[in-house]
Amino acid sequence: MCKFILLQKKRGEGLGKKLHEYALNFFRNNGVDEYHLRVSPSNKQAIAYYKKNGMLELKSELVGKVIRMKGII
């Protein structure tokens, strides 16, 4: 089974939220003031979560395969 299918099966389990919270704490503790991530355009839940938490959608990349988002600490 390919990794993409395995990742899709994990969607909705709160793993992204835990990872995002961990990353924000790490960034704060290490003087990072801006960060970027990429998300699949089909992952509407993740996009909505990141936007709800203050991230901005910047642009589509890799011929529309991912969306780059930016967060400010």
Question: What does this entry show, briefly?
Answer:
The chain is α+β, with helices and mostly antiparallel strands. Helix content is 44%, strand content 26%. A three-stranded antiparallel beta sheet has the order 1-3-2, covered by helices on one side.
Describe this structure in words.
The chain is of the alpha+beta class. The chain is built from three helices and three strands; from the N terminus they run ααβαββ. It has helices at 3-10, 15-29, 44-52; strands spanning 34-39, 56-61, 66-72. A hairpin with a 4-residue loop joins strand 2 (56-61) and strand 3 (66-72). The mean pLDDT is 87.
Compile the SSE list and pairings:
Blueprint lengths: L2 H8 L4 H15 L4 E6 L4 H9 L3 E6 L4 E7 L1
Antiparallel strand pairs: 1-3, 2-3
Radius of gyration: 13 Å
Strand order of the largest sheet: 1-3-2
Poorly predicted runs are none
For the record, give the distance between the C-alpha atoms at the N and C termini, rounded to a whole number.
Answer: 37 Å
- SSE ordering: HHEHEE
Tell me, rounded to a whole number, the average pLDDT.
Answer: 87
Helical/strand content category: alpha+beta
Largest sheet, described in full? 3 strands, antiparallel
Helical amount: 40-55%
Rough outline: globular
β-strand percent reads 25-35%
Question: Could you list some keywords that capture this structure?
Answer:
73 residues, alpha+beta, 3-stranded antiparallel β-sheet
